[in-house]
Amino acid sequence: MKKQVAIIGMGVSGLAVLLALSQLPDKFLEKIDITCFDEPKHFGRGIPFQEDSSTAWINSPIDAISYDYHDMNDFQNWMEQKGLDTDQSYVPRSLYGRYMTERAHDLLQKLKASVIHEKVTQLNYEPDSQKWNIGTSQRTIPTRFDEVHLTCGELPVLDPYHLQGNPNYIADPYPLKNLPKQPGKKDRIAIIGTGLAAIDTLKWLLKNSQADLLAFSPSMTFPTVRILKTETIDWQSLTDTNKQKLFEENSFNFKSLENLFLSELQALGFQNWEETCRQFLAEGIPGISLSLAFPAQLFLLQQLASHLVDWLTDFWPKMTLSNRQYYKENYGKAIINLRNPMPEEAGRLLIEATAQGRLQIIEAVTDIEAGNYGFVLKREVGKELSVATVINATGYHLKESNVHQATTLIQQVIRDGLVQIDPEGGLSILPQTGQVISPKYGILATLYAHGSLVNGVIYQNNSTIKIQQMAERAIGNVIKKPTI
Description:
By secondary structure, this protein is of the alpha/beta class. The chain has three domains: 3-156 and 397-480, FAD/NAD(P)-binding domain (3-Layer(bba) Sandwich); 169-222 and 344-392, FAD/NAD(P)-binding domain (3-Layer(bba) Sandwich), CATH 3.50.50; 240-339, no CATH class. The chain is 36% helix and 18% strand. The protein contains 14 helices and 18 strands. The protein has helices at 12-22, 26-29, 74-81, 93-111, 196-208, 240-248, 254-267, 273-280, 284-293, 295-315, 321-339, 344-355, 408-415, 464-480; strands at residues 3-8, 32-37, 114-116, 120-126, 131-136, 140-145, 147-150, 169-170, 188-192, 212-216, 359-361, 365-371, 374-379, 385-387, 389-392, 429-430, 435-438, 442-449. The strands form four sheets. The protein has a seven-stranded mixed beta sheet with strand order 3-2-1-7-18-17-16, with helices on one face. The longest helix is centred in the middle third of the chain and has 21 residues, at 295-315. The radius of gyration is 23 Å and the shape is globular. The N and C termini lie close together (11 Å). Residues 6-154 form the FAD-dependent urate hydroxylase HpyO/Asp monooxygenase CreE-like FAD/NAD(P)-binding domain. It holds the Pfam family NAD_binding_9.
């Protein structure tokens, strides 16, 4: 009898698992049946790459994103086959979604996988047999599954100012095409957040509305501007050899990793971390201007940040809570803003909007109160500000505080003790394998979680490449087990 494998969610993570399975030798593939679950509107593309406004761009250039990181030219080749312009660096997300959908269709045919276009709402475990029963919004699936991959990245948003339910409060800006255009109206709109989701929101509103915009966040820092170069860096300290040595130490010492990072920083020509931050990073719009003024230095820093984050895939789980807190306080936000940059066009648009008075970056917002005709922003310093609409662009997160807003499936598996929320957010997993850690059963050998669901344990698990690598790690663990 063949092994029954279920993939719940067919966005970026689900496609990554399907791709990893497709790379198995035929002798393994002959022994498994694969069933893929998702709603039709998200099947093959997920939420990030759904149909949306043409101004909702991918924040990665077309040569830095692919459904298969082993072939980073695949997306460009697909565009060329469709007669699309590949000279542009950035394209709409919906276009990448169409590419993903085609590649998913190809894999489904290759693997002869079954497709169920229904949303999974129930997952039950049989501890004696280690098998899984799946229920959807429409029925109970008769198949008992031997292995399940949770790749359902539909996470709730945070509600930092407790505004959910108020008129003119938009809890999630996506899809951007549904945001209020308000042609001709000069209302003020406040955007909570200064990350990439906020950048998307600000860009869309600047191009599609007449509103004056206010943006703010606790850090007040925007992503840096991506510097496009093809230069390869020859790492001096953060080398594969040093990584292996550090990983094999009996007791992980974060100071050793920090010293390697700082040594690499100096090898790239920077004095030290504090001086680097002072010279090349800043809050608000000045930070964007620094990226444009010092492209050579920003390129090196962005590459270094990305390289460090790759290392932290393996070292973050080894770090103590105090180590993690130290890292967050001294490096965290800067590394994130370097590693997740915005397109240059977006940076210039924000600078121009600020100069024209349409965009204002405000500090020290302590509270937001709903009124009869909008909202009042309370501040530590400066006068209160009234706005007609508030848009929450802080992104998606699974925390203890918002589990009640999670999907029916996630609430159920938490309630039944099959999964647990990690202290860093997301689900707890064994990072070496992707296997879920259950508060009731311990490590579940046949349940895996991927993508944004594990963005706490796997540091910055938000790139298509890293998600694919983690899927390969999980599938590699599967074939080591004697049951397949």
